[in-house]
Amino acid sequence: MVLLCFSLPMPRQVSTIMIALVMLLWVLEGNYTKRLQMLKNRYFFISIALYVLYGIGLIYTENFKAGKFEMEQKLSMLVFPLLFFTTHIDQISVKKMLRGFVLGCALAALICLINASYNFYLTGEKEVFLYAKLSLFMHVSYFAMYLCFAVVILLFNDQIVVGRFMQMLLLLFFGVTTILLSSKSGVISLALIFVIKIIHDVVVNKQYYKATIATLLVLFTASMSYIFFPKTFDRFKEMKLSITGNSKELDSTTGRVHVWQHALSIIAEHPIAGVGTGDVKDELKKRYKAHNEQLLIEKELNAHNQFLQTGIALGIPGAIVLLGLLLVVAFQTIRHELLVGSLLLLLTFINFLFESMLETQSGVVFIFFFMMLFFSIAVRKPNQNTTFIP
Predict the structure, then answer these.
(1) Alpha-carbon distance 314 to 53, whole Å?
(2) What is the number of structural domains in the chain?
(3) pLDDT tier, 371 (very low <50, low <70, confident <90, very high otherwise)
(4) Of 49, 79, 237, 279, which residue is the least packed, with the fewest Cβ within 10 Å?
(5) According to the model, what pLDDT value does residue 98 have?
């Protein structure tokens, strides 16, 4: 599991191998009777409800081949609940997994920056340090979410890395890399994380001096980022123009608005059961062609909102189940003071608003691995539970 966490920010093939290895060891460990008893838990059935609905959606889908691929892509939604609800994980193991993930993010970001530096040496173009040209292993939105969660882990757990200097260095490194990735949801998430940390230090820890210093450092870093990386913040200006209707070009935000409108119209036509697990892309393409939106056709954009994406496939009940799962996990992690798990749910919700995060392995593996880790810890019986993360 530690190796799996370390491999998540790496190329997809590496994490796939790690998942297969983890499940192989799970099978070889045996204790099937005991594990079956452990699965008699209402929270386990809540965890797999969405995957079951996608399986039902496979029955009435027209594009069965695409639906089958979707079920394979989303297999982590079944695998990780099964894994974590039948495995007792102690405090040391949790910290090792979180440390492995942080170090994996550091290595992946370092590789990306080294590659960008080499490309800058060859071309002299500063754009190689920004957006898609920087992120080697996955889409920038996913990588930015990974780095933001690594920031959460470092901010709210002092035992992940040795020494305050290393902690601050990694926080700066992850923060700057997130800004370079120019993901709007990533930058918003990063800013929100630091605001929550400052409020936490003031309200909970009563560390007013520390909170003041942190506020000044965040403001200084944000100002320097605005000066040295203006193109990142230009994306927010484009977003403002798109929202206010003053944009004349089809940029990323305007394109999203168009896609959301089409998604809502499809859901309105199929509110109860949706179009089926494999027909989402086909239905959206029909809308793009009907409105002659060539750029959307060429990019084959999905709904760019996980709630809408699920709503198209499974109808309003599917979107409600997805939202309900997030709310249940959030409630349990907050109730048991698992702050890192609660902030993971916040990051997930923010990114679900802008991206269909469960439509690729980079999203579904990361989200369900850590979500089920904290959920399984939170719902254990009091005599089996420990506050793993402050």
Answers:
(1) 7
(2) 1
(3) very high
(4) 237
(5) 96
Classify residue 257: in a domain, yes or no: no
Nearest Cα neighbor of 39 from 3, 78, 95 is 78
- Contact (CB, 8 A) for 333 and 347: no
Cα separation, 110 vs 313, whole angstroms: 38
In a domain, 159, yes or no: yes
Determine contact, residues 320/304, Cβ cutoff 8 Å. Answer: no
Nearest alpha carbon to residue 58 among 274, 270, 278: 278
Confidence band (pLDDT; 50, 70, 90) for 213? confident
Is 350 within 8 Å of 189 (Cβ atoms)? yes
Range of the domain at 328: 2-15+41-237+307-378
Token representation of residue 8: 């998540």
Contact between residue 170 and residue 106 where contact means Cβ atoms under 8 Å apart: yes
Contact 72, 287 (CB under 8 A): no
pLDDT tens figures, 265-297: 999 999 999 999 999 999 999 998 888 888 788
**Distance, CA of 29 to CA of 9 (rounded, Å):** 28
- Mean pLDDT is lowest, of 186-190, 245-249, 318-322, 341-345, for 245-249
- Does some domain include residue 289? no
What is the percent of the chain where pLDDT is above 70? 90
Shortest CA distance to 363 belongs to which of 13, 63, 14, 77? 77
The reply to whether 137 falls in a domain is yes
Terminal alpha carbon distance of the chain? 21
